[in-house]
């Protein structure tokens, strides 16, 4: 049987509320050993996906269209410490215990933007949790799709959330993709937003 890399031991290095660091002692396919560092939303070693082998979503990303013609998309322009700059993203957040993807999406959209959310049905292959930055973390996020309505409000924001709600049409989306910092999941879905030519803006979910 062909040899492959495998984990020898795991050590938790931090004890934080939302994100922790772990050191993995590993052996590679030719017998060499080393330490690999990962970040995880898991609060304990037992909760890491390398232990459970279950892809339970840590968070949810909300792709919401807005307006009577459904020709605008809801984004946030949020300050991120990792780049000391603002990044255009979709509203997103962690999934609380017992919540469905849709429930988490509606709650997070309301908290971040003040808008209400009406989800559309999507096959599991489009909404299942996908890994975000797998080289550094086991975090995965599910995506929910739907329509936003109501008025923008910042009342639900936490003190450490520095963000601006953006309602963008196609002209503004093109400018953002050309000129601004954009998260990769947001960028790919904005490409769908730009390219659909049918009356159904969620044609790609069918």
Automatic annotation (TrEMBL):
Pfam family, one: NUDIX
Keyword Hydrolase applies: yes
Signal peptide: none
Nudix hydrolase domain ranges (all copies): 53-190
Regions annotated as coiled coil: none
GO molecular function: hydrolase activity
Domain of life: Bacteria
CDD domains: NUDIX_ADPRase_Nudt5_UGPPase_Nudt14 (cd03424)
Keyword vocabulary terms for this entry: Hydrolase
Cited SUPFAM superfamilies: Nudix
Biological processes annotated in GO: nucleoside phosphate metabolic process; ribose phosphate metabolic process
Name assigned to this protein: NUDIX hydrolase
Species of origin: Hominiventricola filiformis
């Amino acid at each position: 049987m062909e040899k492959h890399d495998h984990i020898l031991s795991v050590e938790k290095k931090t004890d934080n509320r939302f994100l922790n660091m772990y050191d993995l002692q590993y052996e590679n396919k030719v017998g060499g050993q080393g330490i690999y560092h990962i970040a995880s939303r898991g609060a304990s070693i037992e909760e890491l996906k390398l232990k459970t082998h279950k892809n339970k979503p840590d968070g949810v990303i909300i792709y919401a269209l807005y307006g009577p013609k459904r020709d605008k998309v809801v984004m946030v322009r949020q300050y991120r410490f990792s780049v000391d700059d603002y990044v255009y993203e979709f509203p997103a957040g962690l999934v609380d215990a017992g919540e469905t993807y849709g429930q988490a999406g509606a709650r997070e959209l309301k908290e971040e933007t003040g808008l209400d959310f009406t989800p559309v049905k999507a096959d599991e292959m489009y909404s299942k949790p996908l890994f975000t930055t797998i080289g550094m973390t086991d975090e995965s996020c599910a995506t929910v799709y739907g329509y936003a309505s109501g008025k923008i409000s910042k009342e639900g924001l936490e003190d450490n959330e520095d963000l601006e709600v953006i309602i963008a049409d196609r002209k503004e989306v093109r400018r953002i993709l050309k000129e601004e910092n954009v998260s990769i999941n947001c960028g790919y879905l904005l490409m769908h937003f730009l390219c659909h030519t049918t009356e159904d803006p969620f044609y790609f979910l069918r």
